[in-house]
Amino acid sequence: MKEKAVVTAAITGSIHTPGMSQYLPITPQEIADEAVRAHEAGAAVCHIHVRNPETGQPVSDMNLYREAVTRIKSRCNIVVCITTGGGLGMTAEQRLIPVSTFKPELGSFNAGSINFALFHALDRYRNFKFDWESKYLAMTEDFIFPNTFKSMKEFARIFNENDTKPEFEVYDSGMINNIAFMIEKGQVKRPVYVQFVMGVLGGITPSSENLLFLVDYAKKLIGEFEFSVCVAGRAQFPICTQSLLIGGNVRVGLEDNLYLDRGTMAKSNGEQVAKIVRIARELGIEPASADEARKILGLKGLDKVNF
Prior knowledge:
10 helices, 38% helix, alpha/beta, 8-stranded parallel barrel
């Protein structure tokens, strides 16, 4: 275990829809408020998507991003990790615009293609607020989230040009090999930061055995690296706790899980952050501050972003 761990809060994402939770932040103001709550609870990093303020649908609108990230920066020094995952169906060019526009310290970098499936949520959720929600979920039964070697090479170029650290999102073991290949070709610089994403249908399932396998496999192919773990759904806290036990960092938040406990919906990202911080402290691990996270992850600093 490490003495300090980086806690990330994934504020809203592009997976859950407004009909699933009344607490999902939608507007730039709500997203900023949630990022500040998460920071006050112990998060050093916030992971940012934006949504149409009227309908809650994921969008890639630079004005909305600018409003959200500038509001966050004006109120706290949390590290802002901007998504390049965007919303399902966005082009690679659309997904890269936030990095080239805002030059964030950290950005998500999806390390391979995946059948990113959400359609099975329709078995559980029936009553939606907006017409787009059910259609958005249903289309994922025949959807591939594309991250080809050609597009990843371009992503790496844009990240390098803007001195933005990639947070490699690894949904399955083959993506570790993809990162190793990009390192070998000089497209990606060591040391790398890897986030193991578990529990998305189409990717690896969350289990203790799978996490240990992923970490061991990454050590063999990549060598020294920093890692975090995020989990979709009910296994969020157990597997994140395991990450802490084996020297990793953690991500919680409403992007990944709408609940705080069995049957109890999380009312804010801050509640989830406070819970994982309590767990970490019981294990003798303190949450890293934002500036400590910058040192741990090797980030350029808040003074070098473009927002």
